[in-house]
């Protein structure tokens, strides 16, 4: 198939752009730094937990922060968030979604820093072996919101955590994100517990089961879990 030659206006525009870019001086404008910060949430022992890193270096040495760091010049925001999760938590291939952009002028004492925050959700079995990086004095999961109130957090990371919690609580009502916090197969009781832990309140058992079974998002896995009580039927997420 023959390609169409640029029209006169298109050729003129390309020439103008090339000449403009040759003369363009980016140093005339102040350029803020860009970081990513990730709220990694999981449920362990029946409570909602978030990963925090104890800073080993200034600024805010000794205070707790979210996993994150500066974005590379040739790196996408999503790739940077995935990289920091891998580097600081050894976690790969989990649900990750952009949350919000935080850009108060003095949020970071080093320089003008704009942070694009993400939240990540993972079943406990995916994140149980977190190892601190050389830049961290410690890394651990804290219970939300109880332990959060007791920690000295760096930068505006407490606010980022609070926004993430607000987002996922609202999103539970219309998106299937709860399944990201469960293993591949689960019982209806375990699914309800995820909703209750995230929302911070109890739910009516009968109404919940009717809603999820009629919602088309789960299916019978053809397995049961046996224990001290009656065998419990296992389900799996349909991906819908």
In short, what is this structure?
The chain has helices spanning 8-23, 77-89, 157-171, 188-199, 205-214, and strands at residues 33-44, 47-55, 64-65, 68-70, 95-102, 113-121, 136-143, 218-225, 232-237. With 240 residues, the chain is of the alpha+beta class.
Descriptive overview:
This protein is of the alpha+beta class and 240 residues long. 28% of the residues lie in helices and 27% in strands. It contains 5 helices and 9 strands. It has helices at residues 8-23, 77-89, 157-171, 188-199, 205-214; strands at residues 33-44, 47-55, 64-65, 68-70, 95-102, 113-121, 136-143, 218-225, 232-237. The radius of gyration is 23 Å and the shape is globular.
Outline the secondary-structure elements:
Elements: H1 8-23, E1 33-44, E2 47-55, E3 64-65, E4 68-70, H2 77-89, E5 95-102, E6 113-121, E7 136-143, H3 157-171, H4 188-199, H5 205-214, E8 218-225, E9 232-237
Parallel strand pairs: 1-6
Antiparallel strand pairs: 1-2, 1-4, 2-3, 2-7, 5-6, 8-9
Compute the gyration radius: what is it? 23 Å
Distance from N terminus to C terminus (CA atoms, Å) equals 40 Å
Nearest-integer average pLDDT: 91
Question: For this structure, what is the CATH homologous superfamily of the largest domain?
Answer: Nucleoside Triphosphate Pyrophosphohydrolase
Q: What is the β-strand count? A: 9
Taken in chain order, the helices and strands follow as: HEEEEHEEEHHHEE
Tally the structural domains.
Answer: 2
* Helicity level: 25-40%
Structural class label: alpha+beta
Q: Under the CATH scheme, which class of the largest domain? A: Alpha Beta
* CATH topology name of the largest domain: Nucleoside Triphosphate Pyrophosphohydrolase
């Amino acid at each position: 198939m023959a390609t169409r030659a640029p029209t006169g206006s298109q050729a003129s525009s390309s020439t103008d752009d090339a000449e403009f870019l040759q003369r363009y001086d980016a140093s005339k404008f102040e350029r803020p730094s860009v970081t990513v910060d990730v709220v990694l949430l999981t449920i362990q022992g029946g409570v909602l937990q978030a990963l925090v890193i104890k800073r080993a270096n200034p600024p805010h040495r000794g205070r707790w922060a979210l996993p994150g760091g500066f974005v590379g010049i040739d790196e996408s925001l999503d790739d940077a968030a995935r990289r920091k999760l891998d580097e600081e938590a050894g976690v790969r291939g989990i649900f990750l979604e952009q949350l919000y952009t935080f850009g108060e002028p003095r949020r970071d004492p080093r320089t003008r820093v704009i942070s694009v925050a993400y939240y990540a959700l993972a079943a406990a079995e995916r994140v149980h072996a977190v190892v601190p990086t050389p830049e961290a004095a410690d890394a651990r999961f804290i219970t939300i919101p109880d332990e959060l109130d007791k920690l000295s957090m760096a930068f505006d990371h407490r606010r980022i955590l609070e926004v993430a919690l607000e987002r996922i609580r609202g999103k539970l009502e219309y998106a299937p994100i709860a399944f990201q916090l469960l293993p591949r197969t689960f019982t209806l009781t375990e699914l309800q517990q995820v909703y209750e832990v995230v929302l911070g309140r109890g739910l009516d058992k009968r109404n919940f089961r009717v809603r999820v079974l009629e919602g088309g998002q789960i299916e019978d896995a053809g397995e049961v879990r046996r224990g001290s009580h009656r065998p419990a039927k296992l389900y799996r997420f349909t991906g819908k």
